[in-house]
Amino acid sequence: MNGRTMLTSRTYLLTGAALAAVLTLSACTNGTAPNASSESSSTKAASAAFAPADVTFAQMMIPHHEQAVEMSDDILAKDGIDQRILDLATQIKAAQQPEIKQLKAWLTDWGTDETSTQGMDGMSGMGDGSDGMMSADDMMALANASGADAGRLYLNQMIVHHEGAVVMAQLELDEGQNVDAKAMASNIVTSQTDEIGVMKDILATL
């Protein structure tokens, strides 16, 4: 084999090795990136997935929370209220106002709104009077009450209100699909059950 032939053979070998390296690198790159992207997309899809029950939960919990905030604003504006009740009302507002904002954002993401009837029949057991909402007369009674009487009325009404929220949240846990909505529902069950206990303890000492 002369020098020219050896040079040509070496060139072919080097070229082949370089090509193999490029193909291997390309295969690794194309193999891992789509999988990571697919995993991210899958996680987003799971988080965004929702059922009619999730829509119902959000649509019904928004006015429910808004009424709790209104009741709390009412008691916070009165004089002669037990400090424990004032602290509780402040706590309820702090917890439920951000949840109202989040619930509204979910409805927007899901292509519906607060007054849409979409999904209103998607959660069994809703709309049967178990939601704990106060009537107009109930709200007027709280607005007109004063001092210790107002404090007791607020606690009694809010216990019923919280019990309704727990029922609604439990139904979301049983029938909902959206992971974020179910997480909020779980938090509502835990936090509002605890607050019911606190309110009953306060009532027992008034």
UniProtKB/TrEMBL annotation:
InterPro entries: DUF305_CopM-like, Ferritin-like
One Pfam family it belongs to: DUF305
DUF305 domain location: 54-203
Coiled-coil intervals: none
Source domain of life: Bacteria
Signal sequence bounds: 1-20
Keywords (A to Z) from UniProt: Signal
The protein's name: DUF305 domain-containing protein
Source organism of this protein record: Cryobacterium fucosi
UniProt lineage: Bacteria, Bacillati, Actinomycetota, Actinomycetes, Micrococcales
